[in-house]
Amino acid sequence: MSVPAIELQDITKTFGHIIANKNVNLVVNRGEILSILGENGSGKTTLMNMIAGIYYPDNGRILIDGQEVVIRSPKDAFKYKIGMIHQHFKLVDVFSAAENIVLGLEDEKFNMKEASARVAKIASQYGFDIDPARKIYEMSVSEKQTVEIIKVLYRGADILILDEPTAVLTPQETEKLFAVLRRMRQDGKAIIIITHKLHEVLSLSDKVAVLRKGEYIGTVETKTATEASLTEMMVGKKVSLNIDRSEPSKNEERLIVRGIDCVSSEGVRLLDDVSFTARSGEILGIAGVAGSGQRELLEAIAGLVPLTGGEIIYNNPKNGQKEDLRNKTPLQIRELGVRLSFVPEDRLGMGLVGNMDIIDNMMLRSYGKGKSMFVHRKEPKELAEKIIEDLEVNTPSATTPVRRLSGGNVQKVLVGREISVRPTVLMAAYPVRGLDINSSYMIYNLLNQQKENGVAVIFVGEDLDVLMELCDRILVICAGRVTGIVDGRTAKKEELGLLMTNAGKEA
Amino acid sequence: MGALFAFLHRAIMQGIPLLLGSTGEILTEKSGHLNLGIPGIMYVGGISGVIGSFLYEQSVGPANINPVLAILIPLLCSLVGSLLMGLIYCFLTVTLRANQNVTGLALTTFGTGFGNFFGGSLIKLSGNDVPSITLTATSNVFRTTFPFAGKLGSVGTLLFSYSFLAYAAVIIAILAAWVLGRTRVGLNLRAVGESPATADAAGINVNRYKYFATCIGSMIAGLGGLYYVFDYANGVWSNNAFGDRGWLAIALVIFCVWRPNISIFGSILFGGLFIVHNYIPNIDVSTQELIKMTPYLVTIIVLVATSMRKKRETQPPASLGLSYFREER
Q1: pTM
Q2: In this predicted complex, what is the ipTM?
């Protein structure tokens, strides 16, 4: 029995009153890939940050090659050959790749030429493609990730930690990354990877460790695990991974979009003659390769993007009147009595204010209410508390700044606020991006509830399986053009895939 | 031709305090700290030198001063004075993570008050009729220049007739540019100002870099105040005579897009624009004031131009003005 490369014993870490990690135990051997699985806010990243020296544990021991060590700073971590690739890349945008890679090193002479040569050598050794002189801000996400990986390899790391490395990658890029990781495993490196995606866990790792609400649940061999068994460990109860899709009812044409066009300030055509109808009591899915105009489409309906042509007709269920929403501001749309809710892609940028607490964020929707010059705080407070309770938002209190919450909880607050106004049209862009399984299904169920209440739901998603399970109809968009609208119950993945890519051939 | 040389000569003299101030501020800003206390720090750098020199001249008599001590004492006093100001700024903004703008403005107010208080006290001590202190003996030592400067005609005057502090200012600026652009320390410092979290994860001691950059920057800026009193003003201190040179130095940082080597030429340009009204015949006072405005106008134009071009290298350090705390979530 060999000595494990790294071993954690009874690690505990608290932030104020929040317990991020409690008595966590982990063992990773050389030539082994360990996956860490857990829901949002279960303390995976915090745990890894303690190994990388960003945080310092309150309690517990870390052993490297059987020796107890103290890791007080990232520098100490490098000393023990630990390298971490953070989820939010730690790179300086205006520096070149090579400059980022040598940043903070002290033991070698400062010579960018030699450093670039070494970078190129490491890159070719593992099959990376990289230009050391290129600036980070010119790079794509996957190139940036490559720089991060080479950075830790350059420092001779043999314990690698990757925090959700695949969250931002395309399937092809992910496969390439996994090939590199497998090669590293053969080289005898110890690798820890955090991911939400169960099929990645099963295909890549040797062992899986599960955390739940900061507590260590256990480690299992990947060969003995299944998606269902892992989910049960993560969530603590059996979760049905099925979405109940009811038959659409009470269908009225709620939103009729006819031939809308949108041109960006650089003159690029973002939406080209888009037409569709969203019906009440139905979920309309929107599928497409990222950046095909989904964002502009929703923002156009919400009154945030000016259009160059077409019309958006809203069929008011109260009085049966038809309103044209085109080129009206969000406030004008609201004044018309149109109840439109929007869960934007960029949650903390467009949806919520990170520095404000949950109550204040509720008030973003209701600040105009009331007659006196003072704002009403009582109703938003009750609403905030209701959302925290109903949607099981994990937060110390309703007065915690939203940016301190984990991604899933932020999303619950946002969705909770948007459905609280009892909308007639609900638009959600990538509402489950970055969310764990349990939170994702909670969001799906919320959308389904809204549909049953007669809301016209528009759902932009990236996972085709989910779209086909959840939506009644799926609209496929490609390069700003609608390439097809198919029935969600009979749609085939291949058919959607074709529509997503070959608009040019059909036209 | 002679007038042009004379003008350039004065422009350079006028530009040196700005060059020292902006070099100091660039080093500070490269660590991510916007030190708006620079005007106050330059003021303190000036008055500290005056206090040291005044006490020394008084104790031995202006005629008997030792040239080495006459330079070393004010120099050290100035460095210590501005270092203390830098340390106050660092303690508040780095250690306690106070708001940088508020802290900086407070230091400028404090520094100006400090200078005027001690300036007034010294004037009272010296018993002068005019509200100023004159330290001619020390200033003469400070203004010692190359002996051959006068023999080479107007070109010689233009190139070689300055004091050691002026040449030091240019050397410091070149050195600062070299450190920032070509050394590991410079790379690390720039990383701290761009993205402290990245620097931290790379094993760089972020707070140490911030402290050193800000304190060294303050001391360099303080020398600008010293130069102003003993070289430019011939050793005459009167309250508030330093004017808005400190703000000009901060504007110069933006003008030269955070590069000390460009600042060498920028400072001469700013110095020239600052005094050019004296060289234009037959203009009234209001026009003079309008012309004095041009350095700020030029800065605004540079800001507009760099913002429009959106070139990443000419933008301010990305984390300028933001505090860094590792365990913040």
Answers
A1: 0.77
A2: 0.85
